[in-house]
């Protein structure tokens, strides 16, 4: 292992056998944390080729159970987001795409820091469980065309151990390590077509289009190496997506969107991502036809019915869908008012995400307990004209002393101008 660390430190390309030795050794415990930390730091500075990254992905995937969905009819698709603020697209997209007849096999994650996690959001629905065996996962996809699970100990254990180590060794933001982590989980769950939403902007891990392009090319390259189709979209995260930030609040907005009453940016993004999923799933010949299908499924109520079916299949309380007041709520609310008059020209997604975390909606550490009803509902976004003292957001928390911390963050999140700012695009670039 010392020799392999040294070789990667010098920028050499490692063989399949060598990468396999590293992943297996670390997963089994024969390679200690300190050596794996040194290896990942060498990768952080020296990088990996597409071939090395594909091998690393494959070995991570093979470190645990691999779910075989080959006896399920249709092209199995998945979608992944690199993480943003107010990003509840999976809750909308999974039932919407499944309602179009494309099987959706999804492993999702939990939130940490300013970014929310799909599993936490779904667990705001009382009774809903994301823990299941491999057999149960396959059964649900066969029966309902849709299942969303968390990462259990048997699925990609090498990734779980590596990710925990990356988090505490400042090696998270490396393209090879990010790409192999994403793709190993997608492939272990049986996905054949994968759409990646790469968030770009203040509220995202990727700050520039150039970074997004690098990651996209690596993800697509891994897909080709492993016989999978991957499409990546770079999408804007300079302001939160939609109006709701926080678990139960985002579930409500997702249900509104499935009913056809969602915010325009959230609806547009779901249609864009979903159209690619339908094309990969071979139920539409192009994005235009796919978008028409998706809109009809929302208008007819079929998408919402599929969501209800999904909630019921995973043990959730259906009454919360028709009566959203049954979802968790916070003890206190506070209206955050504008300090100025003018057009909102900037709304820093990172600061809104951090404010929501301070209110109890996110985790500052892995052991933090989430308040499912906490968060922020924005009243105004970029381009809107506001007067001084007009409400900009409503804050929700079980501890009213948290409002002061959140207010301080929001004070620096908004920028105002006298002239209406130019509208920025939501979809920045698509990579095939």
Summarize the structure.
With 432 residues, the protein is α/β, with parallel strands linked by helices.
Give a description of the structure.
The chain is α/β, with parallel strands linked by helices. It has 3 domains: 2-47, Transferase, Pyrimidine Nucleoside Phosphorylase, Chain A, domain 3, CATH 1.20.970.10; 77-322, 3-Layer(aba) Sandwich (Pyrimidine Nucleoside Phosphorylase, Chain A, domain 2), CATH 3.40.1030; 329-417, Aldehyde Oxidoreductase, domain 3 (Alpha-Beta Complex). 46% of the residues lie in helices and 15% in strands. The chain has 17 helices and 13 strands. The protein has helices at 2-9, 16-28, 33-46, 50-61, 89-99, 118-122, 134-144, 157-168, 175-188, 209-225, 247-258, 264-280, 287-300, 302-313, 319-322, 349-361, 402-411, and strands at residues 77-81, 104-107, 146-149, 193-200, 229-236, 244-245, 332-337, 342-347, 375-378, 385-386, 391-397, 414-417, 427-431. A 4-stranded mixed beta sheet has the order 1-4-5-13, with helices on both faces. It has a 4-stranded antiparallel beta sheet with strand order 6-9-11-7, with helices on both faces. The chain has a 3-stranded antiparallel beta sheet with strand order 10-8-12. Strand 4, helix 10 and strand 5 (229-236) form a beta-alpha-beta unit. Helix 2 runs parallel beside helix 4 (50-61), helix 5 crosses helix 12 (264-280) and helix 16 packs antiparallel against helix 17 (402-411). The longest helix is centred in the middle third of the chain and has 17 residues, at 209-225. The radius of gyration is 21 Å and the shape is globular. The protein starts with a helix and ends with a strand. The model has no long low-confidence stretch (mean pLDDT 93).
């Amino acid at each position: 292992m010392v020799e392999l660390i040294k070789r990667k430190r010098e920028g050499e390309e490692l063989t399949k056998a060598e990468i396999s030795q590293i992943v297996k050794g670390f997963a089994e415990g024969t390679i200690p944390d300190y050596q794996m930390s040194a290896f990942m730091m060498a990768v952080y500075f020296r990088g990996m080729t597409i071939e090395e990254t594909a091998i690393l992905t494959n070995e991570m995937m093979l470190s645990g159970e691999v779910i075989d969905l080959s006896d399920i009819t249709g092209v199995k698709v998945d979608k992944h987001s690199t993480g943003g603020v107010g990003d509840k697209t999976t809750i909308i997209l999974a039932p919407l795409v499944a309602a179009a007849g494309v099987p959706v096999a999804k492993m999702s994650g939990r939130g940490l820091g300013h970014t929310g996690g799909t599993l936490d959001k779904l667990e705001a629905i009382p009774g809903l469980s994301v823990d299941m065996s491999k057999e149960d996962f396959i059964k649900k996809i066969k029966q309902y065309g849709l299942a969303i699970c968390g990462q259990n100990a048997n699925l990609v254990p090498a990734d779980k151990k590596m990710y925990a180590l990356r988090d505490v060794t400042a090696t998270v933001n490396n393209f090879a390590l990010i790409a192999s982590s994403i793709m190993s989980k997608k492939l272990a769950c049986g996905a054949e077509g994968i759409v990646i939403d790469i968030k770009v902007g203040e509220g995202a891990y990727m700050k520039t289009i150039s970074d997004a392009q690098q990651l996209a090319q690596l993800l697509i390259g891994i897909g080709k190496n492993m016989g999978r189709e991957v499409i990546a979209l770079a999408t804007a995260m300079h302001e939160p997506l939609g109006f709701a930030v926080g678990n139960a609040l985002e579930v409500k907005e997702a249900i509104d969107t499935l009913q056809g009453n969602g915010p325009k940016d959230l609806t547009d993004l779901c249609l864009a991502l979903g159209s690619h999923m339908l094309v990969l799933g071979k139920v539409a010949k192009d994005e235009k036809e796919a978008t028409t299908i998706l809109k009809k499924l929302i208008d007819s109520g079929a998408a919402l019915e599929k969501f209800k079916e999904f909630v019921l299949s995973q043990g959730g309380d259906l009454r919360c869908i028709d009566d959203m007041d049954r979802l968790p709520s916070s003890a206190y609310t506070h209206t955050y008012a504008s300090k100025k008059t003018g057009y909102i020209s900037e709304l820093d997604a990172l600061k809104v995400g951090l404010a929501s975390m301070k209110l109890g909606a996110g985790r500052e550490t892995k052991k933090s307990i989430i308040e499912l009803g906490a968060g922020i509902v924005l009243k105004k976004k970029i381009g809107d004209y506001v007067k001084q003292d007009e409400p900009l957001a409503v804050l929700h928390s079980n501890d009213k002393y948290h409002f002061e911390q959140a207010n301080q963050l929001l004070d620096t999140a908004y920028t105002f101008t006298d002239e209406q700012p130019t509208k920025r695009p939501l979809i920045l670039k698509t990579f095939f």
